[in-house]
Write a structure and sequence with these properties.
It is built from 5 helices and 6 strands; from the N terminus they run H-E-H-E-E-H-E-E-H-E-H. The chain is α/β, with parallel strands linked by helices. Strand 5 (about 85-95), helix 4 and strand 6 (about 125-130) form a beta-alpha-beta unit. The longest helix has 17 residues, at about 105-120.
Length: about 140
């Protein structure tokens, strides 16, 4: 337990709102969301939930929800069918840092990512993207298979 505490304290960046972990668990365990978008609230000095996407929303809906010129963290629950015809699901953590975003925002999100990502136990894959093609649906398919 002391090791976990010291690891948590050694991670730099913003704090994480309890609501973030609750929403992630809803996506992971209950499948109540297709995706969750998180942002850093500089006034609160923590990562907060910005938006959740319903289970019927598409990957295009998710991508359209990300700002063109600001950073975000996101979780996407990717459903697919294996070659053996089995339905599977993999959870992706996406660090969205578009090239048009402010340098300060890029630095803030980069330094807070490890702490935030550590709180989300059960993510299968991580993607760092600066433009939409770096996180296209094909990229998720390739990683998941």
């Amino acid at each position: 337990m002391a090791l976990l505490r010291s690891y948590s304290c050694s991670l730099s960046g913003m704090g994480v709102a309890d609501h973030c972990k609750d929403i992630f668990l809803e996506l992971q365990r209950r499948k109540t969301h297709r995706y969750v978008i998180f942002k850093i609230d500089e006034k609160l000095k923590e990562v907060v939930v910005e938006k959740t996407g319903g289970t019927t929303e598409s990957y295009d809906d998710f991508v359209a929800s990300l700002p063109e010129n600001d950073c975000r963290y996101a979780i996407y629950d990717f459903d697919f069918v294996t070659q053996e015809n089995c339905q599977k699901s993999k959870i992706f953590f996406i660090a969205w840092s578009p090239s048009m975003s402010r340098i300060r925002a890029k630095m803030l999100y980069a330094t807070s990512k490890a702490r935030f990502r550590w709180e989300l136990d059960g993510v299968h894959y991580e993607i760092q993207a600066t433009e939409p093609k770096e996180m296209g649906i094909e990229v998720l398919r390739d990683r998941a298979h």
